[in-house]
Amino acid sequence: MNLHPKKLFPEVENLELLNHQPITKRDLLNFSNIILSEIKEIVGLKEQPTQWLKSSEVRKLLKISPGTLQNLRVNGTLNYNRIGGILYYKYDDIAKMLNQ
Fold first, then answer.
1. What pTM was estimated for this model as a whole?
2. Which of 9, 77, 85, 90 is the right S-S partner for 72, CB 3.0 to 4.6 Å?
3. In whole angstroms, what is the distance from residue 14 CA to residue 78 CA?
4. Residue 16 lies in a domain
């Protein structure tokens, strides 16, 4: 992780002044907030995907082939809904399957 001083101290115009200033509690709070947001981004604690996923999205999410996804459908491991010619899967069903 490479943090630029301007990101930590946006209010400071001349970064050379930072060499002779003590660290304040506000500085530590800013730093901790930045670190937490970076960790969340790395770990992937982002928003949950949409409620309904298409086959291609499920394959990408689970890193499986189309044949494997078809096997999950055929043997009843993964529920799906067909609307027109498109198969949709509930995100919650995928999470349940992974937790079993």
1. 0.51
2. 77
3. 58
4. no
